[in-house]
Amino acid sequence: MTLKKLEEICAGPLFLALCILMSAGAGISLLYSFNLFALLYAIALWLIYAAARKGELQIRQSGLKMISGTVKAKMIVLWVCMGILIAVALILIAISTQADAIMDAVWNSLTEAVGEMYTELENLTGQSREALMPIMGTMLFAVMGVICLFAAGMILLINLFFFRNLHKFTKSVCNSFATGRCEVAKISTVRAWFLVIGIISALSCLSDGQNDLVFFLGNGCICAAYVILFVLGTVLLEQQRQAQSQSILNPPPAPPTDGPMQL
User: What's this model's pTM, rounded to 2 decimal places?
Assistant: First the structure.
């Protein structure tokens, strides 16, 4: 795969559709949430498309650097979130060991509905409210701690297997245009993740967007953008395989070597 071919892909109709869908998704998301990273991705994609259309992607690399930097910033934010979740989980699990004192302290602040719940539990289990309170408190804090640990584990997996590879991919594209040698890395891995995240986004769109048209439209645009990213990844992977086959069939000539002097 050559840099010219890579630039043609970035200037093509599929990439334009990606820019439009990402911009629409980021814009609609402002109506129900503020997604800074989606806005940065959209701006970076338009910068890449504009430079590629003019054939100046090797000179104007601001879009490539911006998208690579945004991916790295997203990784850092997720690492921080993971650390916070682990700390909260440890605190909750520690609190669960002292549930007796804590539940006694907050008993007076419990609502009438919670009191009725304890009454029903008393009838079901045959145990007194005083016996149920520490059990329920321990279970509550322990379960919340486990949920936080599970969320931290999911962030760890996403960062290690998706965003780290995505950063390597975007950085290799930047380096390719900077050095003039097309050496794009992690295309296959990133392509597979685009498909997985696209499917998850589609399921979320169908389940949570039934009663919210704005959410359905915004998430639908992001989902379609991931589908296009998967298709673009397939095109890049095919181009890379063709280039590798060509290099095997037509290896570059060996450099001349100094042989013995012929008299």
Answer: 0.81
